[in-house]
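Q: Start with the shorter request: fold the first protein.
A: Done. Sequence, then structure:
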Amino acid sequence: MITVDVVHGDSLDTDMEVLLSLKAFMQQHNRLNQGQYLKWNQSDNPCEWPRISCNDDNRVSAVDLSNSKISGEVFGNFSALTALSHLDLSMNTLGGAIPEDLSQCQSLKYLNLSHNILEGEMKLQGFSQLEVLDLAVNRFYGDMNIRFPGICKNLVVANDSTNSFTGRIDQCFDECLNLQYLDLSSNSFSGDLWVGFTIREFSVSENYLSGPGHLPSIFNGSFSLVNLDLSQKEFSGEVAKGISNCWNLVT
């Protein structure tokens, strides 16, 4: 069993301890093909370490481990980096469920877990500052409507494509008032389309959605829409004449 040393604090020194714990955790999971995190202790200042960035208060604010050939579970103590606003773990082979600890990262504005083999229900909550969420190309499943409204107050970009999410989406995003880019393609959503959107890019291709009685209204007020993808085998309903209201529509 692999254990993680839990570190808490609000200083660059404690940030460094957390990163060294993260490094040890990744080394235990990845005996070969280790990435740039091997260089994390070559200086006493973690702000100078590769894939690490700090804010103006000299605190670790960004960890970018994308395409770092890491596997195993997601590290379970990111919340100890109390100034962390940017976390990118994309394009690896991380598996298992999202740890509950991740929902304690209250300062996160950018979270990218895409292109891994993560699975289970999307148990994310409490992200009051989150602006970008990318969960694409994983193995998540379940009803997104249970969790999503609670994390989308400031969300601008959401990519949940190529998973196994189910359920309805017609009221899932009503509270996402800042949302501009939404990709739900290649899932198993069903029911009616979401009719409240005023976003720039919206894709729900390859799902099981319908539009009787509602499809005309999805274009009312959608003047900012630039890209719309409804392509799928199981879509039913007619394309409304109201699409002519989308003056900026390109594709």
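Q: Next, the second protein, separately.
A: Sequence, then structure:
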Amino acid sequence: HKHEFLPSYLFDTSGTTAIEEATTRLASLCLNTKTPTPSSQLEQPPKNHAFSILAKIMQDSKFAPKEIEKHFQDFDGLISEHGDAIWRHVEQWTIDPSQPGEIERKIEECIWTSAILYSIGGWNKDKSLAADFFFLHLVTSSLFLPSLLPYLSQTSQVLLLRGYFASTLGWWVARGFPRLDIQGFFNTTSHLLSESKVANPFLDIVQSAIIHPNEHMLKIQRAFAHFSSLYGARSKGYFKDTELEGAEALDGSLFLRAARLTEEYMSEGTRPWSQEGFLVRK
């Protein structure tokens, strides 16, 4: 979908070759040396946060219920017709790699976005979680971003982040564009935080997932455990300056709540992941 989804100019050769940029980075000892980024530079969401893009696309008339129904579960058709509109939203997501800690911030935004779509997008106050097989892979695939991005040129870092975020938005829309009732989710799932009697509840969660007959169970629970270790201390209000409704209610317990709901959904060992998608909410 290069021509319909990712603009061709993204693949133009830049004036600086990869070898020249790698040489520069090696000379400055940036490639393999991790320089701690001051926490103050990592803990303030920028104005054009990924959550703000989620809010903007939900307000876009191009993705009205009739269009969502037309392309429901048809990623290829959606991208062919509306890939340019999705990309215009992605271009509003500011990525400035010249700012200290920017790439780490953008990785975190991608991880939170994927986790929210899977858990809150897949959640319904009447039916609890529908553990969507496609959203599951958004969560697990975000694990690779911190492994690859440090070894790419700045241009390639931005390209990968935008491409990944664009694909995430595309799958969100194609799966039925479920709305995100963040406040309702957090109000209803508080009981999940008191179910464990150990200091680190993910020890039991991962141990149980290891012996689960479905191999994807361990993958997603391991991902949630890792994300919780990184961002579990995020407090309510951390995302209050984004445009996403209810974002002020988010905190680091999201990953534990999502893991517990996944356990509940997959408690019957032979139950398949949901592939039904989400009906258009008119």
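Q: Describe the second briefly.
A: DSSP finds 13 helices and two strands in the chain. The first strand starts at residue 123 and ends at 124.
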